[in-house]
Design brief:
266 residues, 1 helix, six-stranded antiparallel β-sheet, globular
Length: 266
């Protein structure tokens, strides 16, 4: 391990967490702690040095953390991997209760797995964006290609709900690179606009990379007596009407361009 220090520049008003003196009028404030120079096993996390030219500001954050997402969204650029840390549990590890309920009248119609006896949550996780509906599919290059929606990833925002006349739903896509779930890289982030009309939501569904082509499905949803953002009598609260499958869009260049036969759902 090696030491990491906090430096401060009075002229730039910049606090800088780094292993070496950055020079100029930066002065050392304190010893911040100790880090690894090399990856310390499967639970190692990259400590990434970000910089904003507009703000003259350095920002050190862990890969996959909410702070990294905030930095990317604010236009910071990653300068380098400063060092490595080891992830620590963010909540107390626990084993999920797998007891089959017996007090609900109807017994569970499925037998318990003969392969998996328990599921444990270890308290470690990484945050790669505030979004949902991730359906990753593996490609021959070893990467995962995934839809997502209703949130933001790497500063790109998408939302599948759509209320206004003639509005367009947006659904996101991204490439996931890496084997360590605590230290993945999300690249190729973008979104695609398509109409849900006459419904009020258009969401990702089937996702498959096959024979150098990524197929990305969407389907529609609606709520009885409801326009998104407006509560009304009979509102069922969460997409209670299942609409039809709209079809597949596809890409043969890893999401650089898309063919979408049903941008308008008519």
């Amino acid at each position: 391990s090696t030491a990491i220090y906090q430096y401060y520049s009075a002229s730039l008003k910049d606090s800088y967490l780094t292993r070496t003196n950055p020079g100029g009028d930066y002065t050392m404030v304190r010893l911040e702690g100790y880090v690894y120079l090399k990856s310390a096993g499967p639970e190692a996390v990259e400590l990434r040095q970000y910089f904003s030219k507009d703000r003259n500001d350095h920002f050190l954050c862990a890969q996959g953390s909410p702070e990294e997402q905030s930095a990317v969204a604010a236009g910071y650029q990653m300068a380098r991997v400063e060092a490595y840390g080891v992830g620590v549990p963010m909540f107390e590890p626990f084993v999920w209760n797998s007891t089959v309920p017996t007090n609900r009248g109807t017994p569970c119609p499925f037998a318990q797995s003969g392969h998996f006896q328990t599921v444990s949550f270890e308290g470690r996780y990484a945050n790669y964006g505030g979004a949902d509906t991730w359906y990753p599919t593996w490609a021959a290059d070893g990467n995962l290609y995934t839809p997502w929606t209703d949130g933001a990833v790497n500063g790109v925002a998408a939302g599948s709900g759509c209320a206004a006349e003639g509005c367009m739903s947006t659904t996101g896509f991204a490439t996931v690179i890496g084997d360590n779930p605590l230290a993945l890289n999300l690249t190729g982030v973008g979104k695609f606009a398509s109409s849900p009309s006459p419904y009020h939501g258009r969401y990702p569904c089937g996702s498959l990379y096959y024979n150098k082509t990524w197929f990305y499905g969407t389907y529609t949803l609606d709520n009885e007596n409801h326009q998104p953002g407006q509560n009304a009598a009979g509102y069922c609260e969460n997409w209670c009407i299942q609409g039809p499958f709209a079809g597949f869009r596809w890409t043969t260049d890893y999401g650089e361009s898309w063919t979408e036969p049903r941008v308008l759902f008519i």
